From TrEMBL:
The modification N6-carboxylysine is found at K142. It comes from Amycolatopsis rhabdoformis. Keywords: Hydrolase, Metal-binding. This is Phosphotriesterase. The lineage of its organism: Bacteria, Bacillati, Actinomycetota, Actinomycetes, Pseudonocardiales. The keyword RNA-binding does not apply.
Amino acid sequence: MTGEFRVRTVLGDVAPETLEVCDSHDHLFFASQLLAGQELDDAAAAEAELRAFANAGGRAVVQWTPFGLNRRAADLVGLSRATGVQLVAATGFHRAEHYRTDVLDRVADRLAELFVADLLDGIPAGDDPDADRTGPRAGLIKVAGAFHTIDRHARWTMVAAAQAHHETGAPIAVHLELGTAAREVADLLCGELAVPPARVILGHLNRNPDPRVLREVAGTGVFLGFDGPSRANHATDWRLADLLLELSTAGHTAQLLLGGDTTTAAARLSSGGGPGIPYLLTTLRPRLARALGEDVVEAMLVANPARAFATRWRR
């Protein structure tokens, strides 16, 4: 790679240290093509969430919403300017059950090409891969594994993600279905597909809270995302501090990331639900600081995201 490390935000490339306090995994907009209900599609509510996050000390949010799931990339630009919160947009592809067959067929033979175009040229209007690329450039590639395995669809998307990484330098973020198949994903991306571990972020690890597995995955060198609490994974929230303490004590503090992963309108504080994006800082941060120490929490929210999402971009 050449050049200096930069984080690609919707307002342009920035020095990693300017991210400051970062929510490493969240969603301002999200709508599955096939799994209807509680879509995130309200720009005013997204702005309210971001303002509340900023008032709590937040300075950056990484949105993991990939291609075809209502990214609303143009709105991200306006939201970042209005709130002062730096936003990172995603390219990538989610699990097959989120997409209509015609969409899968349309991109089947050009997935890596689509990722590269989003990263280097900009996200197309209306998320149409053949439309003018008038939106901001994506700053990461988001793909997804299957439950306890890497199925055909997951492998297809991960191979494309690795190809796009090698062409652009972009980090790869992975949705692990219920936190499973973490080691299998790390082995595929960092082994067979030769993606450096420092460019891989595994998400949802708190949904499969097995300390032995987590220590083994941490040994690969990838970043470890603990991205609750959303309503989908509240049953494991009580184990979060113990898991993070064990990993930190084992020497993996520099690999740990925190996010909110707000996936439904009912999980937004601004819509009268919760816990919402601000919860990460208003409630979870002080709770974890008491259990782990402020220095560990500061690393998870500031120093680690600055390294995880920065790369030497090839253009």
